Amino acid sequence: MGTVVEAANKGVNGSITEKNPTVVFVLGGPGSGKGTQCANIVEHFGYTHLSAGDLLRAEIKSGSENGTMIQNMIKEGKIVPSEVTIKLLQRAMQESGNDKFLIDGFPRNEENRAAFENVTGIEPAFVLFFDCPEEEMERRLLSRNQGREDDNIETIRKRFNVFLESSLPVINYYDGKAKVRKIDAARPVQDIFETVKAIFAPKNEKAD
Ligand SMILES: Nc1ncnc2c1ncn2[C@@H]1O[C@H](COP(=O)(O)OP(=O)(O)OP(=O)(O)O)[C@@H](O)[C@H]1O
Ligand SMILES: Nc1ccn([C@@H]2O[C@H](COP(=O)(O)O)[C@@H](O)[C@H]2O)c(=O)n1
Ligand SMILES: [Mg+2]
């Protein structure tokens, strides 16, 4: 028997096949702690973490023909066309050999959402939404120190606007389908993870 998450995402034949992977979308404002919590979920529950932002940054570094366009969009806090991001996600899913995915920072707008559904036919089992006040997210981003070109106050403000205008409607869409698990992300990392753990079935924890 699988977890509650897997049960929610079983295909018509009742089995989890390559065609029916378990997908959890991980959403929240910039700096809400999505990546931090995904690392904990991977360790405890064996998911593969795919951060759309990380995949786009890797694409820039790879010297891809889309690199300059992606770099400019990220600097402006804009959303890269879905076609590009979805191809990267699909490739990473195939290469992982896993069938359980945390897709972090995607879908970021309605175009992302509809295109992913049309191209892959995948519906998320549920959506984790890390809810955090802007002032706290701003503090975290300005002290992240990972050399990200978009962690400066000008781009951060643009990213906040994009989140409010384009990403929140996606969260509301999934809320209308009772798929959103909203988490208070303005707490210490470990406290948040206790809440996250309760959402995934404890029996699926990796053995030590
Ligand atoms: N609960 C927390 N309390 C304090 N700091 C945190 C917390 N969670 C994460 N951080 C720190 O805040 C910064 C942003 O966290 P993280 O990279 O996980 O956010 P994110 O949602 O993935 O951001 P982005 O959307 O920009 O990728 C990091 O430096 C991280 O160590
Ligand atoms: N679906 C997405 C996700 C991200 N981007 C771009 O990457 C930037 C950084 O994303 P993080 O999740 O790592 O914060 C983001 O501001 C966008 O420019 C995207 O286009 N589409
Ligand atoms: Mg992140």
TrEMBL record:
Quaternary structure note: Monomer.
Annotated positions binding CMP: 112
Highest taxon listed in the record's lineage: Eukaryota
HAMAP family, alphabetized: Adenylate_kinase_Adk, Adenylate_kinase_UMP_CMP_kin
Main subcellular location of this protein, as a coarse class: cytoplasm
Entry keywords, A to Z: ATP-binding, Cytoplasm, Kinase, Nucleotide-binding, Nucleus, Pyrimidine biosynthesis, Transferase
EC number(s) stated in the UniProt entry for this protein: 2.7.4.14
Protein name listed in UniProt: UMP-CMP kinase
Organism per entry: Lupinus angustifolius (Narrow-leaved blue lupine)
Catalytic reaction list: dCMP + ATP = dCDP + ADP; CMP + ATP = CDP + ADP; UMP + ATP = UDP + ADP
Database matches in InterPro entries: Adenylat/UMP-CMP_kin, Adenylat_kinase_CS, P-loop_NTPase, UMP_CMP_kinase
Record: residues binding ATP: 31-36, 144, 187
Function: Catalyzes the phosphorylation of pyrimidine nucleoside monophosphates at the expense of ATP. Plays an important role in de novo pyrimidine nucleotide biosynthesis. Has preference for UMP and CMP as phosphate acceptors.
Pfam families found in the cross-reference section: ADK
Gene Ontology BP term (one): pyrimidine nucleotide biosynthetic process
Coiled coil as UniProt keyword: no
Obligatory cofactor(s): Mg(2+)
Molecular function GO terms recorded: ATP binding; CMP kinase activity; dCMP kinase activity; UMP kinase activity
The record's note on its domains: Consists of three domains, a large central CORE domain and two small peripheral domains, NMPbind and LID, which undergo movements during catalysis. The LID domain closes over the site of phosphoryl transfer upon ATP binding. Assembling and dissambling the active center during each catalytic cycle provides an effective means to prevent ATP hydrolysis.
One of the record's GO cellular component terms: nucleus
